[in-house]
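Objective 1b: paired records.
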Amino acid sequence: MNPLTDKPAFEIGVYTLGDIVRDPHTGKTASAGQRLKEILEAAKLADRLGLDVFGVGEHHRLDYAVSSPPVVLAAVAQATERIRLTSTTTVLSTVDPVRLFEDFATLDLLSDGRAEVMAGRGAFIESFPLFGFDTADYDGLFEENSQLFRLLNENEVVDWSGQYRSPLRNAEIAPRPVQPEIPFWIGVGGTPESAIRAGRLGAGMALAILGGPLGRFQPFADLYRQAGAEAGHDPASLRVGVTGHGFLAEDGETARDTFYPYYSGYWNEVNRQRGMAFRMSREDFDQVTGPDNALFVGSPEEVTEKILRQHELFGHTRFLAQLDIGGQPYEQVARSIELLANEVAPAVRKAIG
């Protein structure tokens, strides 16, 4: 398959944030080096099994293994042949857009045209003091950097001035990617304003569906397409994707029983980091794995049905699952990838046509 021209009508892939969490059964915690090796193995497996996209997210904390998605994805590019490579997400408020474009244009050259950028404002704010930014500029930085990245994507030589960085005067933006432009997505969580921004910029919108009933996300897709049309963008260029947490096993009950200790441990740790005492009960977990809720956990048939149900609501053309959550052994993660690629992906593509 040529990654530049041969894209399926509906893309399915996996992504990782490289979280480093204690295994609830063994009490052991993987090292950052081990997690990076597992990420590389997962990417190779996803590529070999025919999945379409592999994503790597950015954090700047000791409990995550990945702070530089383009470096990790460059390693993945050399070990894979056809799978598309994206950040999931880049914290665009605290990275220089010129540096970001150069890194991903280089990745695009190394991968023969497979690079993409998914940008977000970030669930954690540690990158702001780390790189000398003020959290009071949280939204302004993201807006300006998004605009500048789009300009860099479209032009080899740029003149630009803004509020948060030095101006560019007749600046040569190099290297240029293999693709005419690096595909640019904006990750959207719980705010309508983010969906409107993605549409106004003409970027793809990646809906992060991590909790709550599916119906509450449908207005985001409508707002995105409306904002894109009002900004003059071709409706055919306005792409919606869905990202979410998942785990697959041969039957649904086994999947839920196996995944619950890892998932509850993951959220217990995340909530502790945020100063919250909430712990996920089995009742809470079973609710969010229900057919009309967010979590993609179950048998291949159950996960397929949930993706198709969401396709009816959002009309999306891409689904990415985060499968390596909460300190799971790699063998479990690999089995989820196999079931997603071998059973879910064919069934979804056949149903959507």
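Objective 1b, second protein:
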Amino acid sequence: MDRNQTSFLYDIEFMSVSFSYPDLEVLEDVSLQVKKGEFLAVIGPNGAGKTTLLKLILGLLKPTSGKVLVFGKNINEHPSIRKQIGYVPQMSKIDYSFPINVEDFVLTGRYATIGPGRLPHKYDRLAVNETLEKTGLQSLRRKQIGKLSGGQRQRIMIARALINNPDMLILDEPTTAVDPKNSESLYELLLTLHQQRITILTVSHDIGVIAQYVDTIACVNRKVFVHDRPEKGITDETLTEMYGREAAFFHHGIVPHIVVRKSSPVHYCAGETTEDVENQHKT
């Protein structure tokens, strides 16, 4: 099978991609393939190139070398492909004091489709209703966005990204500033969307939690060390490569945690709580 045929087997394909700023190499020789309908979590330390990876998929950056294919096409040569992607950025510059309710905020996701100076049509409002139902926001539709909780605010961002029924949803740290209970609720929402065969790619630091929901994990620190099932990808060896030998991987209950300590070897401790670990470190 030739290159053109294999490309269409994947929604995303990185082909020996590197990316550098003038004084900093961010990604080096990355090859990665994401199948249609796959739910992928990208994990790695701060500054590892995870957000850059997303921006390359969106065509917001161009590779220094190599090629990024999205839906079988070079994203930089076919920017219209972005219309098929819903994107939830890491830091949203939203003024939550602005007097707009949930319904109208979600509608802003269709402004590019509606066109400048035009009023929304009946089918635009219908799309809002369907998206609010899909994301569990029906009861909040008239609520001003500044009165929402952190989890609800992130949910309306996801709703706005879904309003045009994209084939792919990309999220950069969707649970930042969201409490653990609402984090799991958001991942449950993403799992439901995934079951509808939408391709989902999310950057996350919630390694233990996200591993319970995704199909695959991509471990990134300038390079992609592993792209595999969570139970195979999250190992001491992989985490050492990503975080260095000062990283410790702890389990308590069913939720694992990454702890980085200076001048500390890697440990794998089963059954310890965070409090146990802190007490040991104090002694």
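The two ends are 60 Å apart (CA to CA). The first strand starts at residue 10 and ends at 21.
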